[in-house]
Amino acid sequence: MSNKSIEEIEKYILNISSYKAKIEMLVNSNKTTNKYVLLQTYEKPNKTKQIILEPSNIEGLEIEYDGQKLTIKNTKLNLSKVYENYEIILNNYMTLESFISSYESLKENDKTKIYEENNSVIMEVEDKTNNYIYKKSLYISKETGVPSKLLVEDINGKELVYILYSEMEIK
């Protein structure tokens, strides 16, 4: 990937059909910052799964979406809840496939940018329809072509979510 152009890396990212990632996620609210460690998987067109590894009080919580049903499982208590015809998950700004979907849909409207900085290719999306989630920036290693982090900011430039991809397998 180190010899690939920005356009080739962009095309590679936009054509991801499945991935498995271990992520560290910091979520900032007005008063607190919460840290989570998760396993995320995705298979096109819309099958997602997230397993929480940390913090320990919600460890093992699984969130699965198959395009129609959202299932939340507490593996410690052997409980699950299914939500039928659940489409709001498509707005989940904490997943790579959500970023890709936003980037593709807003690219036609000149709401995206792609550029190089240091040893990264940065893909940005600005969505002015939501003050809370205004800008998303995906950092991709120029050497490997693999995402390294995803930042989500509000309209004031405050970082709401910081996702570090510590392990990623792309298919």
Describe the structure.
With 171 residues, the chain is mainly β. 12% of the residues lie in helices and 49% in strands. The protein has helices at 6-14, 96-107; strands spanning 18-28, 33-43, 47-54, 61-65, 70-74, 79-83, 112-117, 120-126, 135-141, 147-153, 159-170. It has an eleven-stranded antiparallel β-sheet with strand order 6-5-4-3-2-1-11-10-9-8-7, with helices on one face. The mean pLDDT is 89.
Give me a quick take on this structure.
The chain is mostly beta strands and 171 residues long.
> Globular, elongated, flat, extended or rod-shaped: what is the shape?
globular
Uncertain runs: none
Instruction: Report the order of strands and helices.
Output: HEEEEEEHEEEEE
Rg from C-alpha positions? 16 Å
Helix content bin: 10-25%
Strand content: over 45%
- Count of alpha and pi helical runs: 2
Strand elements, count: 11
Lateral arrangement of strands in the main beta sheet: 6-5-4-3-2-1-11-10-9-8-7
Instruction: Output the structural class.
Output: mainly beta
For the report, how would you describe the main beta sheet?
Answer: 11 strands, antiparallel
**What average pLDDT do the residues reach?**
89
Question: Could you give the distance between the termini?
Answer: 15 Å
